[in-house]
Amino acid sequence: MSASSITAAVTTAAASAANPRVGFVSLGCPKALVDSERILTQLRVEGYDIVQTYDDADVVVVNTCGFIDSAVTESLDAIGEALAENGKVIVTGCLGKRAEVIREAHPGVLSISGPQDYASVMDAVHVALPPRHDPFVDLVPRRAPGLDDDIGVKLTPKHYAYLKISEGCNHRCSFCIIPSMRGDLVSRPVDEVLREAEKLVRGGVRELLVISQDTSAYGVDVKYAEREWRGKPYQTRMKALCEGLSELGVWTRLHYVYPYPHVDDIIPLMAQTHNGAPKLLPYLDIPFQHASPRVLKLMKRPGAVDKTLQRIARWREICPELTIRSTFIVGFPGETEAEFEELLDFLDEAQLDRVGAFAYSPVDGAQANALPDPLPEDVKQERLARFMQRQAAISSARLEAKVGSVQTCLVDAMDGELAIARSMADAPEIDGLVQIQDGRDAGLKPGDFAEVTIMGSDEHDLYGEVRWDAPEHG
């Protein structure tokens, strides 16, 4: 699995002095962000106001990350800041599975719960801050999130949203402790996911980002049970889900896809278009992690590297527009210089579009900690630098090859005359941007699609101008 990026957000909303007020800090990956959205939605349903500052809050909830050491530090720092600024803090999320770590650093927290434990969070809020009793409103049953056109509180911009399709993971990668935090795979029913996606699109979402711990394994725990949506049967299976989502007429982007053989089945859908738009974005986020069969075996990952290269070539034959992003770990215990060179050779052959890498860092509770021959830190960092230098050249060349092309872009923000947008090859937060030089003159605003002629590139981003003779797409 790919390591989580760390982000923090304190949510904002208009607060009423009459209602109990909750501050919220959300840390971690998009999967944790969805957990935060669900908790915030329930808080709003129960009459709590969500406030922007510690001073305005009656209690603060911190949703933590705990996947790697830097995430643990970030989470503990956030809890400490909330305690110092407010004093009443409820902790939830992945680090909540290691309550002793939190209690040792911050014994004054009011409550600790693990990820997806929404009921415990709400119970703790009720104890610390009972909901205001309104004899008139309380006679009316409150709406539960997820009914009718209710899409709840979102922490992303209006025009894109994360769509979580499952919880947990059945893999036992030796470097990862996510299963101990989030449990085994639990897939959401496919009709429930499709209805949520439909509501999000009705609410203005133009890009759906499908997330889970293992998107390729979707439905295996329920034996691919069949459900009905829009009068048609769909299996709880990745391909069927993608076919359903492709009917909604928006960008659908797949994240955390393990390279199982059945991934091949969705590539043709990425090559199909409807009204000029791809039915499924030609984008795969696949955490390959390494290229040495022996290292992959130590990681407890699939190791058929030769087949992986063949499959990538076949995918691109079917869908030439396909973007592949991946993550890798360098300096894994026992990794030899020759095996690291295998990884560099893999980069040269695979020509991946976007790549992230991490120097191996021991994670408390991970099986890899017991492996022999750990590498010195300076060796790990030297290999990481060489890896990133090699990939930077590849990424730069692939972006430069787009100069002169026309790319469909989705605008995220305006910055003076510029429109800051993303192409089909760019996921929010983790990939590059397209700076549209005449965005203001073109009247663009966040959530708009534009056809952009690419005029230049650098190592990460593209630069272009609106193609004025092209109709708006999407």
Chain-wise SSE layout:
Elements: E1 8-10, E2 21-27, H1 30-45, E3 49-51, E4 59-64, H2 69-85, E5 89-93, H3 99-105, E6 111-112, H4 118-128, E7 160-164, E8 166-167, H5 178-182, E9 186-187, H6 190-202, E10 207-211, E11 226-229, E12 232-235, H7 238-245, E13 251-254, H8 267-271, E14 273-274, E15 277-278, E16 283-285, H9 293-299, H10 305-318, E17 323-330, H11 337-350, E18 354-359, H12 377-400, E19 406-415, E20 418-423, E21 434-436, E22 449-457, E23 462-466
Parallel strand pairs: 2-3, 2-4, 4-5, 5-6, 7-10, 10-13, 16-17, 17-18, 21-23
Antiparallel strand pairs: 1-2, 8-9, 11-12, 14-15, 19-20, 19-22, 20-21, 22-23
Helix pairs in contact: 6-7, 11-12
Q: Stretches where pLDDT falls below 50 for ≥5 residues?
A: 1-17, 135-149
Measured distance between first and last alpha carbons: 32 Å
Major sheet attributes: 6 strands, mixed
Structural class by sheet pairing and helices: alpha/beta
Rounded mean pLDDT score: 88
Please report the number of helical segments. Answer: 12
- Which radius of gyration do the C-alpha atoms yield? 23 Å
> Into which percent range does the helicity of residues fall?
25-40%
Shape, principal axes of CA atoms: globular
User: Strand share of the residues?
Assistant: 15-25%
Tell how many strands the DSSP assignment holds.
23
